[in-house]
Amino acid sequence: MFGSTALAPLMVGFDPNVSILFSGISTLIFFIAVGGRMPSYLGSSFAFIGPVLVATGAAAGAASPDIAPTLGGIIAAGVLYPVIGVIVMIAGHNWIEKLMPPVLTGAIVAAIGLVLAPIAIASASGSGPGNPDGDQFSRWIAILTVTSVGAIAVYAPGMARRLPILLGGVIAYLAYLALANGFGLGKPVDFSGVAVASWFGLPRPYPWR
């Protein structure tokens, strides 16, 4: 869930600190509600990325020019989830299987993937406003990232196998840092933002202000 909790907010112009904060709060509430019998982690959802980008007219990975109107829809979805949960507790889950059979839910998941596919391709290619065609170095780093994630998910021992996205990203980042900053094969990582960043900060739920 690290990918959705940290990456999804960045893709739609939200502050990831807000996502991480409320992800932790919701996880604690869930853990208390189930009495610790079902350990789980609640993160944000990639399903919101497409609607948010369409509603705001933003480009993926860029600050949204008009994120405020989408908050109402996200809050409404958050209110609807527990309502559906209560209905399922009372009426059971058979009606969901009839209303949304596997062929339908599978198509929805596929549609989410297809919506995000162009974003993934553009990001993996290193394309941007100044470089619409991307570059070969970025593509090799993307291949390394995917390979690392897959290898960790399949072959890593113990706890590491549960963190493929995080560890795969770390491996690819270190490789990029060495090759770009050390050997000049790509655009160097700019640490100027880190140098001026505060040691402590609070989540900004209203980043457009």
From TrEMBL:
Keywords: Membrane, Transmembrane, Transmembrane helix, Transport. It comes from the Bacteria. The chain crosses the membrane at residues 20-38, 45-64, 70-91, 103-125, 137-156, 163-183. This is Uracil permease. PANTHER family: PURINE PERMEASE C1399.01C-RELATED. Belongs to the nucleobase:cation symporter-2 (NCS2) (TC 2.A.40) family. It comes from Agrobacterium leguminum. GO terms for molecular function: xanthine transmembrane transporter activity. Pfam families: Xan_ur_permease (PF00860). It is found in: Membrane. The keyword Transmembrane applies. It is a multi-pass membrane protein. Its main location: membrane. GO terms for cellular component: plasma membrane. The keyword Transmembrane applies.
